[in-house]
Amino acid sequence: MNEEQASAQIAFNFGPVNGNVEKQEIHLDKPVDKGDKSDNVVGDKGDDVAGGRGVLSVKQLIILFMEMLDVTLDASGINQSALAKLIAQVSGYAENTVRPKIAKGVDYDAKQTRQDAERIAALLDGIKPELAEKIRNNVRE
Questions:
Q1: Over the range 68-95, which residues count as b (16 or more CB within 10 Å of their CB) and which as e?
Q2: Digit-coded pLDDT (tens) for 57-102
Q3: Does residue 113 carry a pLDDT above 60?
Q4: DSSP tag of 20
Q5: Exposed (0-12), middle (13-18) or buried (19+): which is 141, by Cβ within 10 Å?
Q6: What angle do CA 69, 83, 88 make, to 5 degrees?
Q7: Rounded Cα distance, 113 and 115, in Å
């Protein structure tokens, strides 16, 4: 291993303390494998109900918020624009991505929706089992 592979430079910005960027050279014991994504794993194999992804889809978030807030997506049930704004703020998805999916609604007969609902229910099992069961019952109806 040559010196170039074994060292890296890190910049620390101490901001209002002195306004300067301090650089410190560090030496690594081994080269960094840029292909290693182990820090991005949600859990060990078998425990990972998130399916290897750390982010919920818009549809999954809609199911989650709909059940947590105990509302329906029809016009009388909730202000859809406000829900879209909330989901966008919490998730980082663009509001104009979330809003049409809320307007479309949740089709529990669709295979993907059933899978999404099960993923949300699995995540809620250890937090609020009755809410998880409510989501599962929506799929069964």
A1: eeeeebeeeebebeebbebbbeebebee
A2: 999 999 999 999 988 887 677 899 999 999 999 999 999 999 999 9
A3: yes
A4: P
A5: exposed
A6: 120
A7: 5
Spatial separation of the C-alpha atoms in residues 89 and 133, rounded to whole Å: 27
Q: Are the CB atoms for 7 and 27 separated by under 8 Å?
A: yes
pLDDT band at 12 (very low <50, low <70, confident <90, very high): very low
Task: Provide CB contacts within 8 A for 18, sequence distance 6+.
Answer: none
Tokens 């202000």, located at residue: 79
Q: In whole angstroms, what is the distance from residue 4 CA to residue 59 CA?
A: 46
Write out the two tokens for 139.
């799929």
Q: How confident is the model at residue 116 (pLDDT cuts 50, 70, 90)?
A: very high
